[in-house]
Amino acid sequence: MEGCKRLPDPGAPKSVIAQDKSGNISRGVKDEGRCLPKSHLAPVYINPLEYNVVSADYAQWRTNESFVGFNPTNTTPGPPFIQVIDPSSLDITGPNATIRLVVSNPGFAFAHEAPIYVPDLDVVFFSSNDGGPLGYNGWYNNSVVSMLNMTEIDNALAATTGGVNVQIQTLNLSDTAQMVNGGTSPYMGNLLFVTSGCALLPPLVVLVNPSPPFNTTVLLDNFYGRQFNSLNDIKILPGTDIMFFTDPT
């Protein structure tokens, strides 16, 4: 492959990840310094050192193309496709990872916030858009927390080569938890969400049981007597019970 670029691949010391001049990645084998690609792969490598600073005259971020997706390699067809910033990520995804649709509802931003994967259940939890035009929520309409069974997705994808549309399950959470906007897990076996609040109900840090009946436990709803503005994201410091969360204006 002309102009190939060797990227580290610790999981396969006798192989290389090759990048051609167009940014396409292939996995190959070493042979006297040459890259011998086995097959063309979907992921595209992006060197972050080339794009960390794009200068004030980088006009693309002020055009409608910014909503299409970052594509500094001008790969065609354009996004969505997998872009590799750190080559070691291929040890997780494998070199042949592709993007396939698993569930769709074009008229409703049902999967927008707070993705949480629970390995013991093989389930992904997420929330709909909090306040956006396709979230269909407001003063009297809460956002919707849903879940996807990954085993069902695997079985559906195995039966076809294209995309699928798997049924999602919504959680009937307590009305106390208004506008879920961020989440992480596990914490004492529970999902940990932050909410933006709505109407007269304040923003919260709240625990949610990942199994029916999905009962909720409020951990925090104020800062020394002052209501939070709009809690947005939350993470737990690994190995501790320390929670970090954001409350933007």
Folded structure, characterized:
The chain is mainly beta. It is built from two helices and 14 strands. The protein has helices at residues 90-93, 150-158; strands spanning 15-19, 24-31, 34-45, 83-84, 113-118, 123-127, 145-149, 169-170, 180-187, 190-195, 205-208, 216-220, 234-236, 243-245. The strands form four sheets. It has a four-stranded mixed beta sheet with strand order 1-2-3-4, with no helix packed on it.
Short description:
Helices cover 5% and strands 30% of the residues.
User: Roughly what percent helix?
Assistant: under 10%
Largest sheet, in brief, is: 4 strands, mixed
Query: Mean of the pLDDT scores?
Result: 79
Q: What is the H/E order?
A: EEEEHEEEHEEEEEEE
Which stretches are poorly predicted, pLDDT < 50 over at least 5 residues? 1-41
Q: How are the strands of the largest sheet arranged?
A: 1-2-3-4
- DSSP E strands, number: 14
Q: Structural class, from secondary structure content?
A: mainly beta
Radius of gyration, whole Å: 22 Å
Instruction: State which percent range the strand residues make up.
Output: 25-35%
Total of helices: 2
Termini Cα gap:
51 Å
What is the molecular shape?
A: globular
